[in-house]
Specification:
With 392 residues, the protein is of the alpha/beta class. It folds into two domains: 190 residues, FAD/NAD(P)-binding domain; 136 residues, FAD/NAD(P)-binding domain, CATH 3.50.50. It is built from eleven helices and 21 strands. Helix 1 packs parallel to helix 9. 44% of the residues are buried. The mean pLDDT is 96. It binds flavin-adenine dinucleotide. This is FAD/NAD(P)-binding domain-containing protein. It comes from Helicocarpus griseus UAMH5409. Pfam families: Pyr_redox_2.
Length: 392
């Protein structure tokens, strides 16, 4: 029987890929159309090591061809469109897409109708955009030249002898550890980690912060807490970066890499579907909430980094997808039973490798040992299970 409902998913990364599989496995008579600007999924979890240590992993270990992840489904129930959503017509139930020029086909505008829409367009970072930072893809660039952008970043960092990293959350700390190890053979090398908080890894227990502090210090990383970065710029002639701190102090280095948080990918999302900061507000069922229209039941869901939910982590996405899909299924089957409510991310699980041999983190209320971080994540940043995670 031909599918009777079409679900369009905007964003083909963690949240979009996992939602697509869950729908195709759990809901009958549905076609899923997945839209993503690039045909390549980037295993960005490993980005701190990929960028700092170019030979650590082969590109085929951390990049995946998105259509191949869904080859087990027939074309009647799944299709992939390589393109970027430009706008959503909420009442007309369509998404306008600018398709990419691929396989000899010209780029064009396409209007795709949906019965249900899932927004999974995620987030990006200043470094990924190359804005006020060395261009360093910590997230996907949304372009098929991702690998050449990665290689450019690897070259810039390999040529640098001094680096400043802004932001000491998990990504900043992981990257500082990897870069410090990569710089060890260089004479006069230095890595400085700046944070506006009074300790690094402020989202974790103080024990994890002090453990990270000692491991990074052993690797020679200079840590400065409670400093606010006011700006960063690169001199076009000398290529040196100058980081200006609030108060006027300036620091210079061959590279400045920002890891100071994430920015929503929301340019195509109507203003009344955005809350403060540009993130998409949802209810406990993951249904998008239009500003000023309480209790409206739009056929639009959102999941992952693009939502107002924090923390923005892959391991929280894993808990969100089943709830969203249960509610979508109930909508499609017009059932009031089996609806689910999301009650939050649950137990804190954050593991932060620091270099190839150590790290820290927190599982529930417990700070974890460095050797355990190495065992769980530090060996290859979960690359060993990337393929199976993405294909199911
Ligand atoms: C360096 C780094 C390391 C991390 N490590 C961890 C970790 O160890 N553990 C953990 O739990 N979390 C980690 N995270 C967080 C994790 O990466 C995010 O939570 C996760 O990527 C969120 O997935 P997502 O699918 O919601 O969004 P994203 O991964 O941001 O993907 C969004 C997708 O939507 C696409 N898109 C954007 N705009 C459009 C558009 N207009 N049309 C169509 N598609 C669009 C993008 O190209 C992208 O493919 C890390 C983050 C970083 C930056």
């Amino acid at each position: 029987m031909a599918p009777t409902k079409t679900v369009v998913i905007v964003g083909g990364s963690w949240a979009g890929i996992k939602t697509t599989h869950a729908i195709l496995k759990g809901i009958s008579n549905v076609k899923v159309i997945l839209i993503n600007p690039s045909a390549t999924h980037y295993f960005n979890i490993a980005a701190p090591r990929i960028l700092a240590k170019p030979t650590a992993f082969a590109p085929e270990k951390y990049t995946f061809y998105i259509p191949e992840l869904f080859e087990k489904y027939n074309a009647e129930i799944f299709s992939f469109i390589q393109g970027a959503a430009q706008s959503i017509d909420i009442d007309g139930k369509t998404v306008a897409i600018a398709t990419a020029a691929v396989e000899g086909k010209e780029a064009r505008e396409l209007v795709v109708p949906f019965d249900y829409l899932v927004i999974a367009s995620g987030s990006t970072t200043l470094a990924t955009l190359g804005r006020d930072s060395v261009l360093a893809p910590f997230k996907t660039t949304g372009s098929d030249d991702l690998q050449s952008t990665i290689e450019q970043a690897q070259k810039t960092l390999a040529e640098a002898e001094t680096a400043i990293i802004g932001g000491a959350g998990a990504v900043g700390v992981e990257f500082a550890g990897e870069l410090a190890e990569a710089f060890q053979s260089k004479k006069g090398a230095s890595v400085t980690l700046l944070t506006n908080t009074d300790r690094i890894l402020p989202e974790l227990k103080p024990g994890a912060s002090s453990s990270a502090d000692s491991t990074l210090s052993r690797l020679g990383v200079k840590i400065r807490t409670s400093v606010m970065i006011a700006g960063a710029s690169q001199d076009s002639a000398s290529k040196q970066w100058t980081v200006t701190l609030e108060g006027g102090e300036t620091l210079t280095a061959d590279a400045y890499i920002s890891t100071t948080g994430v920015i929503p990918n929301n340019s195509f999302i109507p203003a009344d579907l955005r809350a403060g900061g540009g993130w998409v507000p949802i209810d406990a069922e993951f249904r998008v909430q239009r500003q000023g229209k309480d209790n409206e039941k739009l056929p639009i869901y959102a999941v992952g980094d693009i939502t107002t939910l924090a923390p923005r982590l892959l391991n929280t996405v894993a808990g969100q997808v089943p709830v969203l899909v249960a509610n979508l299924k109930a909508d499609i089957e017009k059932s009031t039973a089996n609806r689910r409510q999301y009650s939050g991310p649950g137990m804190t699980t954050v593991v932060v490798p620091i270099g190839a041999r150590s790290g820290t983190g927190q599982i529930w209320f417990f700070v974890v040992w460095g050797w355990l971080v190495w065992l769980v994540k530090g060996r290859d940043y979960f690359l060993f299970m990337a393929g199976s995670l993405l294909r199911s």
